[in-house]
Design goal:
alpha/beta, Rossmann fold, 6-stranded parallel β-sheet
Length: 439
């Protein structure tokens, strides 16, 4: 039993796992990381819930067979844009009908052990209790399609002290449950030019809906992001800062070694905000001007994002030459292999909520060469080599990063790893969550 504030009250938590299989950035990783921490802190007092991605009919609990459960949870876990067995026109009509329902309550049902175990394996969380998974009887779409004149749907959380969700998908909770929203950023609001207009509209709807609830506890990755949130949306909000865990996707026995290979690494989604083309051009110029050794290579690891179709296709076809290598949707082991060999890790992002890749690179002894934004400054401290918006500043930073990496000893590189372990380890981050939810 876990007591809260020393009064012997048992704390029960319901955590939304939906984003463990969705997204193109560090959100799935953070979702899984927090799930493991909460499971460790609360044990059987922590349950997990998934909201379906696509439309599925509301099941009858009494007649739900294991096959029916598998179908329902499969829809909940689907990582693509969402489909159902129904024609799209019928599915859309059902979604709209569901969105305008005057019945706000969203029941949840518990999956059997076999189906739960399969779902957790799919989510790369095989060690979570197979008895603690629930699925909401509401698909994700109606939450955003719901007219603003109607109150948002309310998931039945009676008996839980906390409901914790990732992102701002609109939902309410039962009266005695405290609602925690883990929001990594609100860049679609502050930097809409970097996102698809439909995505911006959906994000804006979700955020506006959730901001109506002044009781929500907001949890951000950095002080910089939380400060901007308070400035934009009111200083009367309850805000906490808990960074992301760094390194949860890698094995613990990361060996630091002197980097003999001239290799620079970019690790991020291929989307406008990340400025991948700018990095490639700066890298090419530095080599052409003989500011970098001619055997230098640039490894770009990432998934296809949005608004960068031509760049993505050119990377896939190796259209930038033999010295620019692209690995599409790399696994954790593939990322680890490249970071182990890389001398520098480059992040030229125009804006971030957290900025995970430079810290992951530091775990492997990569010198971080990063854009001068508040989140990078906060997370990297004195360990980063920062550059401004101009390409010439990026070129100078690349040269400085290579020079620093070339003279760094194993001990120097271990300092980078120790810094990450001290500030972003599972032990440290879980203590922050425990402090928020238990003490």
């Amino acid at each position: 039993m876990h007591s809260r504030k020393g009064i012997g009250v048992e704390v029960r938590v319901l955590y939304d796992l939906s984003y463990a299989s969705r997204g193109l950035s560090g959100i799935p990783s953070d979702t899984r990381s927090i799930a493991r921490m909460l499971s460790t802190i609360f044990g059987s007092n922590c349950d997990f819930i998934i909201f379906p991605k696509s439309y599925v009919p509301r099941p009858r609990r009494s007649s739900l067979s294991p096959i029916g459960q598998a179908t329902y949870s499969g829809s909940a876990l689907r990582a693509n844009s969402g489909r159902s067995y129904l024609p799209s026109s019928i599915s859309s009509i059902l979604l709209i009908i569901q969105s305008i329902s005057f019945i706000r309550a969203v029941p949840v049902f518990k999956l059997d052990r076999i189906t739960s175990k399969s779902a957790f394996n799919f989510l790369l969380l095989p060690n979570l209790s197979a008895t603690n998974l629930r699925v909401a009887t509401l698909s994700n779409g109606p939450r955003f399609a719901r007219p603003k004149v109607l109150k948002c749907f309310k998931v039945k959380t009676k008996g839980y002290n906390y409901f914790i969700q990732q992102q701002i998908d609109p939902i309410a909770v039962s009266r005695n449950t405290k609602h925690v929203v883990r929001l990594h950023d609100f860049l679609p609001i502050t930097h809409p030019q970097f996102f698809d207009p439909i995505a911006v509209k959906a994000f804006q709807y979700g955020l506006e809906t959730m901001l109506k609830n002044k009781e929500i506890i907001w949890v951000f990755d950095t002080k910089a992001t939380s400060t901007e949130f308070l400035q934009l949306f009111g200083t009367d909000r309850t805000v906490h800062v808990i960074p992301c865990e760094v390194g949860s996707n890698f094995k613990e026995d990361i060996e630091i070694q002197v980097k003999d290979e001239n290799l620079a690494v970019v690790l991020n989604t291929i989307e406008p905000r990340k400025n991948v083309l700018k990095v490639i051009e700066a890298f090419k110029f530095a080599k052409l001007a003989q500011k970098l050794p001619q055997d230098y290579k640039l490894a770009i690891l990432g998934s296809k994002g949005w608004q960068e179709e031509s760049l993505y296709l050119k990377l896939v076809k190796r259209g930038f030459g033999h010295d620019v290598i692209f690995k599409d949707s790399p696994s954790g082991d593939e990322i680890a292999d490249v970071l182990r060999r890389g001398k520098i890790l480059i992040s030229a992002s125009s804006a971030e909520g957290f900025g995970l890749p430079p810290l992951e690179g530091m775990l492997f002894g990569c010198i971080p060469v990063v854009s001068d934004i508040p989140q990078h400054r906060e997370n990297l401290g004195s360990h980063g080599i920062f550059f401004g918006e101009s390409k010439s500043e990026l070129i100078d930073a690349l040269i400085e990063g290579h020079a620093k990496a070339s003279i760094s000893t194993v001990q120097d590189l271990k300092v980078l790893r120790s810094y990450v372990h001290k500030n972003f380890s599972s032990l440290h981050i879980s203590q922050l969550w425990k402090k928020l939810l238990v003490t």
